């Protein structure tokens, strides 16, 4: 069975899962976006992962999670959801190491007081296992995270865009605050080599939260402790 759009082939099970996902999204965005917009974002999100997903059964779930993020961003861009929370986007090349650790720390320390997303210019197939292990040492679980691309609405919705090595491939929108964090790429490194990168990211995230006047919800890690 194929979908109504021409890009990716969808099995019967995946089609059923996508219909269920569309129903959930329609409920959650009731009064914000119509069914057509939701379906379009869901299926285009599916296409983003269909070409390189290692486990096809997870495709509808990944598509739903990414579509939800994109719809939340679009609602902010269009002024349909205004909560005054600072919004930050972390970008790197593969969205598998640095940007995922930054997102993990940001959500850990900011809680519900701010919003953050992450993306990559060339998304990898999975999050770096060494990054997952290094973050677990801080009690932060990024094992459920997944590499994903950036999209226009997500970049446009962000107040601050933090880039980490994606260079000219990173999206530039006039009038937006950009900041480049020069950090070693953890790709191919073991946990011991990733720890210094992780600690520098933690320090920078805490500095960013202070700049944005976002109260830290948890006690920062004490390296001397």
Automatic annotation (TrEMBL):
Task: Provide the Phosphotyrosine protein phosphatase I domain boundaries.
Answer: 86-211
Domain of life from the UniProt record: Bacteria
What Pfam families would the database entry show? Answer: LMWPc, Phosphatase-like_N
Spell out the InterPro entries in the cross-references. Phosphatase-like_N, Ptyr_pPase, Ptyr_pPase_sf
CDD domains cross-referenced by the UniProt entry: LMWP_ArsC
Sorted alphabetically, which keywords does the UniProt record give?
Arsenical resistance
NCBIfam families assigned:
MSMEG_6209_Nter
Q: What name does the UniProt record give this protein? A: Arsenate reductase ArsC
